[in-house]
Amino acid sequence: MKTESKDRLGKSVADHYQLMHAFTIFSQASEQLSNVYRDLQQQVEHLTNELALANGELQRQLAQKENLSQQLSLLLSALPGGVVAIDNEGVIESANPVALSILGEPLLQCAWQQILEDRLLATDIASEWKLRKAAHNDFRRISIESSISEDSGKMVLLIQDITEAYTNQERIKREQRLAVMGRMAANLAHQLRTPLSTALIYAAHLSNSELSTQERSNFAVKTVERLQYLNQLINSMLRFVKGELVKKEVVGISVLLSDIQSLILPHMQKKNLQLVVENGGQGEALTVNYEELCSSLIALLENAIQASPVGGRVSLICNLTADEVLLTVADQGDGVDIANEERLFEPFFTTRVEGTGLGLAIAHSAIKQMGGDVQVKSLADRGSEFIIRLPRTNLSNTINSNLSSLI
To answer: Do residues 341 and 376 touch, judged by C-beta distance below 8 A?
Structure first.
């Protein structure tokens, strides 16, 4: 019995120790679990705070963007010019009220190329257009400037109604021409009086019965010559005052130089002059009024012929720069006096007895209207150079290609 009691007691003690050990392990595990749970709670709380901060920052940024978008929308609405945004497929995705007012509706989700073809007409200036369907009494002229994003390929157009400015500019030009015409009146009267008086004297002989038929015929020819001179003088004056050019066209430089050479050679042969043509513009072209440019070059060449000594040389040279075509007419004459250089292009200014003083003035005016300029370089006893500067034009470019350049 005692032995069994001891055994039971020993087993009970062992079970007690096992239970205590198990409880200790459980307590440690519970404490670790509590610590882990507490850490998780802290992490969740920390992440929740960070998420709240991030959401707050996102809300703040979103509010800022909405505010900026509203301000931008108000700004676009308040702009005096039209703004059109075009995606990288050439479709209009947005436009401000001014753009809608200028170009008309529909506009949004329309192809820009179609808008150009249906509603706009190109002008001689690449960035300026006329509204195709404008009413007769509501003529509009607009300018379009473009900016393309290198990253997205999208484009923004700035459209301005320049009708009033264009009208005022044309009016000022006309007033300036009229003012010049007024200053020219006295000179013109003198220019007309001499050939007219001569023609009247010749015409008076036509009724003289004492003259032979041949003599009267000679006076008739001289009368017609003086009257033709008067007609040419009046036409030249009108061309200068009006300053009007017909529609421009693309002209190959090689063709232009060849035509000029054919026209001027007979005049040069009278003084046994040599014409040297240097074409550095092979394959290039100009967008100009062909007849006016020919007339301008002929006027400069005739001036060079008159200034050159018998047997001398006159040069017609074409050179290119990055964005210009230079047409130079050079002679081997006595050069232009420095005091007269600034007056060369004034109407009726001439250093020759038989000159009208209109040839260079008309040439200068015509070149200016074609977007170019004329410069003079002269050295005493070494001749003069007249240099026409005009914008370059690629032969493949036309006004229609300028339409597609905006998409």
So the answer is: yes
